[in-house]
Specification:
Blueprint (H helix, E strand, L loop, with lengths): L8 H6 L15 E4 L3 E5 L9 E5 L11 H22 L3 E5 L16 E6 L6 H6 L8 H9 L10
Antiparallel strand pairs: 1-2, 2-3, 3-5, 4-5
């Protein structure tokens, strides 16, 4: 049997009762900051390179953002996608929002946009059979890749 190693997941498993908003004072894995928004690696990623973009202001849904905040946020999503295109060379993306607990939002009080790079064959039986995702790179490696010059897939950092 192969071993699935994801040590950062233990922090999630053991700290299910998070009281403060993870988007209101981001400290680790922040990739970009703009006037109204920032992007950050998702520490519980769906796939390698999973980034989230969020406004600095704590609002629960898009309609509460001012026009300049919404434009800034969307510009950051586009910039983040372009950087991921160069750094990771994905074959596709899932880009979207989960608004409200019923929609699957882990932090329903602070709107954020998921930017998830995808490759043909990156989904296999693991999520369906056991609810397990296989993430091949650590967050530290993904952060270094994002912040470094462009690379080819599977090269060492």
């Amino acid at each position: 049997m192969d071993i699935l190693w994801a040590p950062w997941r233990s922090k999630y498993i053991y700290s299910r009762k998070i009281k403060k908003c993870i988007f209101c004072d981001p400290k680790e894995y922040v990739l970009e900051r703009t006037k109204h928004s920032f992007s950050i690696l998702n520490i519980y990623p769906y796939n390698n390179g999973h980034v989230m973009a969020a406004p600095f202001r704590h609002v629960k849904s898009l309609e509460y953002l001012k026009a300049e905040e919404l434009k800034d946020l969307m510009d950051l999503v586009v910039k983040t996608k372009k950087v991921l295109d160069k750094k990771l060379k994905p074959q596709g993306y899932n880009i979207g929002l989960n608004i409200g607990k019923a929609a699957g939002a882990g932090f329903a009080g602070h709107v954020h946009i998921h930017i998830v790079p995808r490759w043909a064959g990156d989904t296999n039986f693991m999520p369906a059979a056991s609810g397990t995702r296989v993430i091949s790179e650590s967050l530290d490696v993904m952060y270094k890749i994002y912040k470094s010059s462009p690379r080819t897939p599977c090269s060492n950092v």
